[in-house]
């Protein structure tokens, strides 16, 4: 059996892989292969497949023997294509080694450049005198990077060596370092390596290569990577690929450059090519944000200069655009980016290097973008005929819609705030908080419930926890493609980067801006959409939506089958939700109305009353309020259904707990504190979650159900008389037994009938139940014979199905996630395996018993995309969520409809199969070709051997005889 | 269509019904019909079917028109058979009207005797002068009974009239009342009826009859009946039948008598005919217990006299047995009882009346019996070849086994107690408690947790609640068949009846016995097996089992497929359970071991420890204790499996709650109270039931799991070395996710492996889980791939599936039962519809994933017969219950095996079908016979008419012509 293929070649003559092989080659490797196939100039290289990563960890970090063979074989191919030799002193091939997982994980994995350099091969780099410095700089860069990433030496040791050297010779800028300086630096690096690791720095290129491969695979399980995957829900099992590629150099002189670009603006989505580059630099310099990069396009460059108050003259001379600097390379780049966007049908994030005016592409991938950009690009691309509306709907994530709903500054509040400075608008949205200077503080302050803005000179992967915890990120250095900017956009967190106007002292925990000195804990506000940094707190608000957003949501509404309702207890919430597109209220909690103003007094009177008379008298004081509440909400939602849930929480929630409050209540109620304390004691429950609440209240105190029904039906009658359409749905909570429902339904229908008679009018209404007790789900067929609708209360259903008290489970739930026992928090996203079974069972049995039953969800899962997909699949008719999640739910529901569209799935499967077949065919062809060429040469050899041999005659005769024998045999048969 | 048949006749010539028709005719009616079919002398009558009761309540207490027709028709049949006419002044037919539901409900329903009497028909009763008094006495009895039961007049009005009359004439005894006295009494009764109801007492017999029928149907829904049904789990839908039967009189003189008998001794089960009778009395006199009845058999009579210190001379003259008094009637009765027992294959409870030396049977039914009697009779009947062992196993209820396990007096304690008096041993078992004098007090005292003995002159159905609440019942009057005796036996409550030696003043709340005066609240002890009444508290103990019991349990063990284990946490419990037949420990709760002695200190140290080191140090102090505990339990259960559950309760349960305790703990632990209070606060949970407990403890604190596993495995190794067989099963509690189980299993197996290595020995053990979280049940297939056994924790499963906190649900659960929302307490008997589904799902999926998985139950439902039947049906392998319920579970499991035996079910179905076919055939035959006789007489009439008519010729000619026409037609065709 042939050894398993772990290594895939790519190069100008074509690749063994392609873009569909992301799972095997990682995103980067697959796209490099694809670009080669598209005849785009890419330095040759090979990809070690992600399978290897899995094998590596399964075998306790060991490789199978065939890997070395395959690596050697492919290394030879690179040498052949690039015309250089790995480790050759005259014409050395240098390599970059990069990680590349299935999905992009920016900054999470480690990269090595210039691999293969040592003091011998270094000479091979020097073609002309001016290359000497470049060669030595490359070596010291390589040693620094390799020493840090592969050998685990802290970067500060190398930085210190540079500082020492600079001090020694009075050097201010890195570029001032001479060849001699660099040689001295290389010597001191050797000492550092020896000191820190007890080993010499490896000079053998092969040893360097395997060290780097080890480091890439090893980094898959480093803490940052694990955290990032957990944060994004990526599986540990995916593994990373390793991309080994011939180096090209953007730092070999002024006819060299390196850059990063987006085929459209990643912040706004505008259809404008957008990129940054650095002359005479390596790629890492751009990403690290240490030097301020120049714009690729002329238009971009002019705009940038205007934003930075730089004169056109200064700009053109000091910061020319690539369009001006190397027009022919620019044109080439433009052709490539257009080709790529057309090919990938999506905005691309590309990396390029220009070596002696030759353009090399080092990466292409679907570009990360802000929420606003995602919407605009998706809608634009449909308008451009590049994608279908379904594609557009899948291009925007529900999280991005969430970001669009994120606060922006209230204009007036912003006007009155003092502008401190302006940086780059790196990630949109507004944030306000207290200044902290490192990730640990950001996390610690957050844990105390404080709002922070994380201020750093520049960020690195170590800062991610802090970035998550902060309300916004402000950096002193770095461009739009710096680490801070990219990560913040991904998180939907606002970020202002490259704030050169601030003098940030991270150690001393101060920021100076002219005379102004800010300390840790001071309030600032940042606007990631404009780059503004403001003093103090600025009020925020939710943005209005633009046309593209409306268009996208319109497509979503047409595509989805799930209706979206909202959970709203007030007319204000109801109005907000309607604006966001809610198609009804799925959950109106009546208990919230019990707390307002002097109503709580009547509620408490009811609780304290000794007998039914007393309780009814107290309820009589409440009914007017409830009717008014219902009136206002029904009016707001006219024409749309409103599901009103009967009183749900245990009565003790309406009583005070603190002695002072009890005293006050006693005074108000005109009774002794003892009476109140006795009542509190009597109502105390060990497990209130499983106690006297929900319909158990309405059954033990039917007068409450009666009052609430009367209030609602009276309001409905009144509105109907006014000519306003109402669709009330009365919902009985916590039903676990059909008899509970029947008992409550009887009271509701009798009360409604009485009101109708009194008012002389009839209003249509439904009576249904929440399914939130496991038994309710299991006996849904019985319940559906009486209930006209089910609304799944997935919060309580989760609590009871899993046995997790929501109030207490945080004590173990996060440990469970850390230990891999739970994949995610089941209160955020529905546990499809467990709780999902109950929902599915109940939906199925409910529909069987009552085919036209209405089925919805009103738990918080109703606003969670993964849960919405599940609810779509089990055939619910609507989800209900908080007003601000309504747009998210609308998009999620559309995505659920698309993703579960059978026709679409079949099409996708067919496309996948075709592409696999194509790959296989290509493989077979290549194998056959190889075999043919091998066979040809073998035959040739054999022929020669035979022809030259004494045996020729014997063989010829033997062959003839054999031929005749066979002929005879055929004749016989 | 023929009108529905509601009325079924029975009489000496045979019946329309039979014993299999209990659902239609009620128990009494079906057995009366059966006796008639057996040619046993029964006064003719008819039964209005239970269907009528259902129709009656559905039609708002109205009858369909056909009922009156059917009643009239059958009344005529009775008149024909008995040779008397209803309402006839010369020879009046009098009737009894009795209720009769499917199952016997003693004292619950109302009875009317002598119906049809008025001042006119009364004369027809008087055949000779001596009958005059009997006739008037019958009338006043009838008026009193009818006035009370049908017209709703309180009995005390009539009693008062008697007292007044007695006082007026200085009469002491009822029997002294003369005809004139009785006439005066009748007049005063008329006045009472008029005063109390505003209506005259009905004199029309028909009106009387329909009033009585109404009263019987009406009584089905009286409160006593509803309470009794609820207590016994009978459905309200069954309905009662009404039995209308010709009266026979046991009170027409000294050649008349009435009595009640059991074919075997209902207290001991001895194979001895046992009965009581009264000369010149009506049946109600025996049951009411007002007169002390005489014994039916001579042997019984002699024994009775000895017990009551009555000389043989006095006995023979004043209290002769029926055997002596009317030998030929006695012989007749003996033949009948033997025939009945042989026919019904069970001990019969019979009622008879002797009217002028003619024996009439009024009722037969399977006799109620004590638990001991049930066991003895069942075993004896198998030995006699009367029934099969399966029948015997079904003859004893698990409740009766429970009664047998009830305490009896400790001999020494009893010896030193003062005997106050002796009554009849009416219901066995020993009881001790404080004296109360009425049912309300008994209930109220019970509610306060007090033990009571209910002392009454005699009991009536109104006393049932009190009888349930009390530890025992003591009555001043009434025999072995009195209300108190019958009901107490049914309840398994000890009762001493007919305690003539006590002067009981219920109103004054005192008992006098000679010089001794007892007041409310004084302690007494009663022995229902001996009739002894003892002063003060006497210690009780559980009885030893006799041979019959052992034999029955042996049959049960052979019959059942479910194994019975026990829940035991101590060697003592384990030993007790083994004696009761436990086949292993299904649940050993380790947390109980944490509280004992100074262990709690170490537990608290562990809780307070800041780090793993501290926790491990604390656990090190516990491990020795746990190992010793496990050693002792495993040793006790040698050869049997022992399931040890890892620590389950939330840690806060191990901390004190009261300030004083906290202070003490702080002193012991050498820390501040603040530290402890902080810890208490940190561990506080809103819903501890759904909090950090079960395996969540072992996952967040793996060192506990490690310690417990080590303790158990070390003990197991030690015993194995000593040559003692051990089968430990380690049970992980509260698993809802397979990953929880895997996490714990890993620790357990690794720890065990370490111990085995240390000890140089291997012990087989299983690792399994409790299924007590709904999600655990729903994902049982996943869990079973790793868990070697499931033990259903149906307590928690019920809590979570229903959302009922066991600690809090009492606030609504009883209201739910009252309102018909719940049928029974789901914590007592498993909710098969809801929780049952989870058990079934888990069992099925568990077996699918691991065909040899062990499945058991360790919730309290493991000792509940109905639940055991369910567990048998879903295919579990064992149930585990508390030691004292093990014998109950053994029998229940056998009954489950029998009741679910398919072969048996088929046989039963075939028998039922045969019997139905027989009935149908008989019906068809009777209908055909009727039709034939009707047709015959019609024909005769027609013939006569035609022959005598002028039309004869015309008709004959017409017929001839018609005949010829037809003939012609045939020819043509």
Summarize model confidence as the mean pLDDT of chain A: 89
Oligomer: homodimer
Please state roughly what percent of the residues of chain A sit in beta strands, choosing from under 5%, 5-15%, 15-25%, 25-35%, 35-45% or over 45%.
15-25%
Q: Give the helix proportion of chain A (percent range).
A: 40-55%
Structural class category of chain A: alpha/beta
Question: In words, what does this structure look like?
Answer:
The structure is a homodimer of 973-residue chains. The two termini of chain A are 37 Å apart. In chain A, strands 15-25-24-17-18-19-20-16 form an eight-stranded mixed β-sheet. In chain A, strands 27-28-29-30-31-32-33-34 form an eight-stranded parallel barrel, surrounded by six helices. Chain A has a six-stranded antiparallel β-sheet with strand order 2-1-3-8-6-7, with helices on both faces. Chain A contains 40 helices and 34 strands. In chain A, α17 (398-404) packs antiparallel against α38. Chain A is globular and about 120 Å long. The first copy, chain A, is 51% helix and 16% strand. In chain A, a hairpin with a 2-residue loop joins β12 and β13 (358-366).
């Amino acid at each position: 059996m042939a050894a398993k293929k772990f290594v895939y070649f790519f190069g100008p003559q074509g690749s063994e892989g392609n873009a569909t092989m992301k799972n095997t080659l990682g995103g980067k490797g697959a796209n490099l292969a694809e670009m080669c196939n598209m005849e785009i100039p890419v330095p040759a290289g090979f990809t070690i497949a992600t399978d290897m990563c899995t094998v590596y960890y399964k075998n306790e970090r060991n490789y199978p023997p065939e890997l070395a063979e395959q690596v050697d074989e492919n290394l030879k191919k690179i040498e052949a294509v690039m015309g250089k030799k790995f480790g050759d002193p005259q014409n050395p091939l240098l390599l970059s080694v990069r990680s590349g997982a299935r999905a992009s994980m920016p900054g999470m994995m480690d990269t090595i450049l210039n691999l293969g350099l040592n003091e011998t091969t270094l000479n091979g780099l020097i073609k002309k005198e001016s290359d000497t410095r470049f060669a030595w700089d490359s070596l010291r860069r390589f040693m620094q990077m390799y020493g840090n990433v592969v050998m685990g030496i802290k970067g500060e040791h190398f930085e210190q060596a540079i500082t020492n050297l600079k001090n020694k010779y009075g050097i201010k800028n890195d570029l001032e370092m001479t060849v001699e300086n660099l040689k001295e630096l290389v010597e001191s690096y050797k000492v550092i390596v020896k000191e820190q690791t007890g080993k010499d720095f490896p000079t053998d290129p092969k040893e360097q290569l395997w060290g780097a491969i080890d480091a890439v695979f090893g980094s898959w399980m480093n803490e940052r990577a694990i955290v990032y995957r957990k944060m994004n829900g990526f599986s540990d099992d995916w593994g990373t690929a390793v991309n080994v590629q011939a180096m090209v150099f953007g730092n070999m002189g002024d006819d060299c450059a390196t850059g990063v670009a987006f085929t459209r603006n990643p912040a706004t989505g505008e259809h404008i090519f957008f990129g940054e580059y650095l002359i005479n630099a390596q790629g890492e310099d751009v990403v690290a944000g240490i030097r301020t990069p120049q714009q690729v396009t002329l238009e971009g460059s002019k705009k940038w200069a205007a934003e930075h108050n730089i004169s056109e003259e200064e700009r053109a001379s000091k910061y020319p655009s690539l369009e001006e600097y190397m027009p022919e390379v620019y044109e080439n780049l433009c052709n490539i980016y257009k080709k790529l966007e057309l090919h990938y049908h999506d905005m691309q994030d590309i990396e390029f290097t220009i070596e002696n005016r030759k353009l090399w592409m080092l990466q292409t991938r679907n570009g990360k973008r802000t929420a606003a950009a995602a919407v605009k690009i998706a809608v634009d691309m449909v308008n451009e005929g590049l994608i279908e509306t379904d594609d557009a709907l899948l291009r925007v994530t529900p999280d991005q819609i969430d970001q669009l709903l994120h606060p922006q500054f209230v204009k007036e509040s912003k006007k009155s705030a003092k502008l401190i400075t302006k940086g780059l608008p790196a990630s949109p949205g507004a944030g306000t908080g207290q200044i902290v200077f490192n990730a640990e503080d950001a996390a610690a302050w957050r844990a105390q419930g404080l709002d922070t803005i994380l201020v750093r000179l520049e960020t690195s992967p170590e800062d991610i926890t802090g970035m998550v915890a902060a309300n916004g990120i402000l950096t002193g250095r770095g461009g739009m493609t710096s680490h801070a900017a990219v990560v913040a956009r991904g998180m939907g967190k606002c970020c202002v980067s490259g704030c050169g106007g601030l003098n940030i002292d991270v150690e001393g925990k101060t920021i100076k801006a002219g005379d102004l000195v800010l300390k840790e804990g001071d309030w600032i506000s940042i606007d990631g959409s404009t780059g503004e940094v403001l003093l103090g707190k600025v009020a925020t608000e939710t943005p209005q939506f633009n046309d593209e957003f409306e268009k996208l949501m319109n497509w979503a509404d047409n595509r989805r089958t799930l209706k979206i309702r909202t959970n709203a207890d007030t007319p204000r919430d109801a109005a907000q939700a309607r604006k966001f597109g809610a198609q009804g209220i799925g959950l109106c909690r009546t208990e919230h109305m019990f707390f307002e103003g002097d109503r709580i007094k009547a509620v408490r009177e009811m609780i304290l009353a000794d007998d039914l008379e007393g309780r009814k008298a107290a309820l009589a004081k409440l009914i007017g309020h409830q009717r008014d509440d219902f009136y206002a909400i029904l009016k707001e939602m006219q024409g749309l259904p409103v599901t009103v849930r009967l009183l749900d929480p245990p009565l003790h929630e309406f009583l005070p707990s603190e002695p002072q409050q009890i005293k006050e209540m006693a005074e108000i109620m005109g009774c002794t504190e003892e009476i109140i304390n006795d009542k509190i004691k009597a109502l105390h429950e060990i497990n209130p979650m499983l106690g006297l609440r929900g319909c158990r209240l309405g059954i033990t105190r039917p007068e409450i159900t009666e009052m609430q029904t009367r209030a609602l039906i009276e309001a409905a009658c009144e509105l109907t008389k006014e000519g306003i359409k109402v669709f009330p749905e009365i919902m009985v909570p916590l039903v676990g037994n059909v008899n509970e429902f029947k008992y409550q339904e009887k009271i509701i229908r009798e009360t409604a009938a009485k009101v109708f008679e009194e008012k002389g009018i009839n209003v249509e209404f439904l009576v249904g139940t929440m399914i939130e007790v496991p038994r309710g789900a299991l006996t849904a067929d019985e319940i559906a014979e009486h209930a006209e609708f089910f609304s799944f209360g997935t919060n309580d259903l989760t609590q009871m199905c899993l046995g997790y008290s929501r109030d207490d489970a945080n004590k173990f739930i996060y440990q469970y996630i850390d230990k891999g026992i739970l994949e995610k928090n089941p209160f955020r996203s529905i546990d499809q395996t467990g709780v999902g079974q109950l929902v599915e069972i109940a939906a199925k049995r409910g529909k069987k018993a009552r085919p036209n039953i209405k089925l919805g969800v009103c738990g918080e899962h109703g606003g969670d995309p993964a849960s919405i997909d599940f609810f779509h699949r089990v055939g619910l008719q609507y989800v209900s969520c908080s007003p601000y999640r309504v747009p998210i739910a609308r998009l999620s529901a559309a995505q659920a409809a698309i993703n579960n569209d059978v026709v679409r799935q079949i099409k996708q499967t067919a496309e996948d199969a075709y592409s696999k077949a194509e790959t296989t065919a290509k493989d077979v062809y290549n194998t056959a070709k190889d075999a043919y060429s091998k066979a040809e040469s073998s035959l040739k050899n054999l022929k020669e051997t035979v022809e030259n041999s004494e045996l020729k005659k014997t063989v010829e005769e033997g062959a003839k005889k054999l031929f005749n024998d066979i002929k005879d045999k055929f004749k016989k048969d």
